[in-house]
Amino acid sequence: MKYINVIDFWDENLVRISFDLRKMLPDYVDCVIVATAIRYSDMLLTEDSRIHAIKEYIHKNYGVRVLSYSELSKMYKSH
Asked: Which has the closest alpha carbon to 12: 33, 41, 35?
């Protein structure tokens, strides 16, 4: 369990970011997932087409890259 980090979804910054994302994503759980990636990472790996539809916004406004598995594997194959 040392690799699992539990993050409170009611964190003020997560709520603020998720409410911003709510304007573009209809599923609030998706908003919380993306907000968590924004707060704690620089990349989100997902196959969710609605999240991919706003990935430019996420990258531009929050600096987080949204990738699919195939995009990620292409990145590592090219190195």
From this structure: 35
Reported pTM: 0.84
Structure letter (DSSP) for residue 67 = E
Q: Which residues of 6-37 are buried (b: 16+ CB within 10 A; e: fewer)?
A: eeeeebeebeebbebbeeebeeeebbbbbbbb
**Helix, strand, or coil (residue 2):** coil
Strand residue runs (E) in 3-76: 43-45, 65-67
Tell me phi and psi for residue 65, to 5 degrees. Answer: -90, 135
pLDDT block averages, 10 residues each, the chain of length 79: 75 93 96 95 96 97 96 82
pLDDT confidence of residue 5: 76
